[in-house]
Amino acid sequence: MKVVALHNLKGGVGKSSAAVNLAREANRDGLPVLLWDLDAQGASTWILGGENGMSRKVGKLLSGKSPLGEQVQHTPWERFDLLPADMRLRELDRILEDKAEGDKHLKRLIAPFSEEYALMILDCPPGLSTLAEQLIRAADRILVPTIPSPLSVQAFSRMLAHLELKKRQRERVLPFFNLVDRRRRLHCEWIDSPPEALGRTLENWIPYASDIERMSLENRPLADLAPRSRATHAYRRLWQELKTELGE
Ligand SMILES: Nc1ncnc2c1ncn2[C@@H]1O[C@H](COP(=O)(O)OP(=O)(O)OP(=O)(O)O)[C@@H](O)[C@H]1O
Ligand SMILES: [Mg+2]
């Protein structure tokens, strides 16, 4: 099973939108997919029509005392499952910090799912958390949705500095541009030639598209909501690029 995390220090940059649509594209491509909504806000849980958990049990599950698989919900799409957000996720950092395994606790929580799924997508909350620090151990790729702006680049550099990654780990962190508006000069320039501070970026990018905002009104991924939309095709290309990346 491959594990892909959507992460950014910044909020509101398109992590949840990408998590849902990349998961659905991979699922349309025939892969059994599990999306784990690790953000207590529950945006991807909401879009997929899942039920936010509120159970006391989740503390036990996150600390590894009982199997996390008990919380898995089906979505309306076959072989596309959801591990929904839960209010107890607010305590996730404390739980991850507590564990004796050091920075491998998240990886251990994920491991049992590899029997059933070919791909796991992690929708992460914004911020520099213990979760963020453990992602590099747990995920094959960390995708960083990035709005083309100098402040986004600065946030990205800060995130890298905080994580203190080794060279090979750094290579698995891949920004991609989101909310691209081709009427803006900077956006056009950066798509063609991304700033060096971002390092290697994915080639595909997601345009600004109002269809994306509609996902949380109609509770469906773009492929089902607006199959012909530019944004749907953009996420599809992004998935194809990611698939190649994961196959390497
Ligand atoms: N390419 C896009 N075009 C138009 N709207 C977008 C695009 N990407 C994201 N949005 C909208 O921007 C808002 C934030 O997106 P999203 O929830 O995916 O970001 P996030 O990084 O997960 O946010 P948070 O940090 O709060 O978890 C949402 O209303 C979403 O519909
Ligand atoms: Mg989100």
TrEMBL record:
InterPro entries: AAA_dom, DNA_Partitioning_ATPase, P-loop_NTPase
Pfam families: AAA_31
UniProt domain AAA: residue ranges: 1-169
SUPFAM superfamilies: P-loop containing nucleoside triphosphate hydrolases (SSF52540)
Top-level taxon of origin: Bacteria
Region forming the signal peptide: none
Annotated protein name in UniProt: Chromosome partitioning protein ParA
Origin species: Salinicola socius
